[in-house]
Amino acid sequence: MTRKYWMGIFVAMLAVFGAGMLVARGVNRVGTLVEDNLPSPLRLMMNTGFKVDGDKIGDIERLQFMRTSPGQFDSAVVTVKVEDSADVAHIGACTLRVTNARPFGSSTRFICTSHSDSARLNLVPFGHIVVLPEGKTVTFYVASSTEQDMHQHAYRGTGGSDSGDVDISTTNGSFRITVNGREIVSASDSNGVTIHDANGNEIVKIGGDSNGGSVQVTGANGKKIVDIHGASSKKKP
């Protein structure tokens, strides 16, 4: 089972339970927790891969937002696995600009920018791409007019106003978000989706397999406020 399988289980369960039992037992709380911690546009960006000028050239394995003060992002680092050496040479030879990245998400675009456009936009560096397996680094830029917005809004999700770096990884069949070294969200093929609070306590747990799924939400007092198990319908032979 893949990470996309788990995301499918999760979305389907919210759709099924949202119309009935979850509404009565805290669907608004579940929805807010999940959306705040698992920003869907960012997940979609990482699932669809790294694209330059609209063409996919690799897979995003890691996305980091670096900062030295709360809520202020200094730069971003995107780790990408690229198989074709020609693609590596292509992005290394161009001035790579990122657009629609306030915040980073499914609408974010990386573009090879001409010298004339670079001068017109007064491009400034905002981060770099780490290209695997070679480990080559490629700087990417933003227009100077958007630089301040980028520092404030490059990332939206759990830990956005914290003081530590945000590290999002999609390697080895798992999806993990850590803030200042503390794991906040984890999703894996075997364990489903788990969301923790700032103290490391489990607050949302979503699991499932071919037989059905479950959603559990734990309140600040340690008591379960949502505990739902559902069975998938099976076709008759």
Task: Count the beta strands.
Answer: 14
**How many DSSP H or I helices?**
7
- Alpha-carbon distance between the two ends: 24 Å
Q: How large is the radius of gyration?
A: 20 Å
Task: Estimate percent helicity.
Answer: 25-40%
Number of domains: 2
Order of helices and strands: HHHHEEEHEEHEEHEEEEEEE
Structural class: alpha+beta
- Low-confidence spans: pLDDT under 50, at least 5 residues? 9-28
What this model shows, in words?
The protein contains 7 helices and 14 strands. With 237 residues, the chain is of the alpha+beta class. It has 2 domains: 111 residues, no CATH class; 111 residues, no CATH class. Strands 1, 2, 3, 4, 5, 6, 7, 8, 9, 10, 11, 12, 13 and 14 form a 14-stranded mixed beta sheet that branches. It is globular, with a radius of gyration of 20 Å.
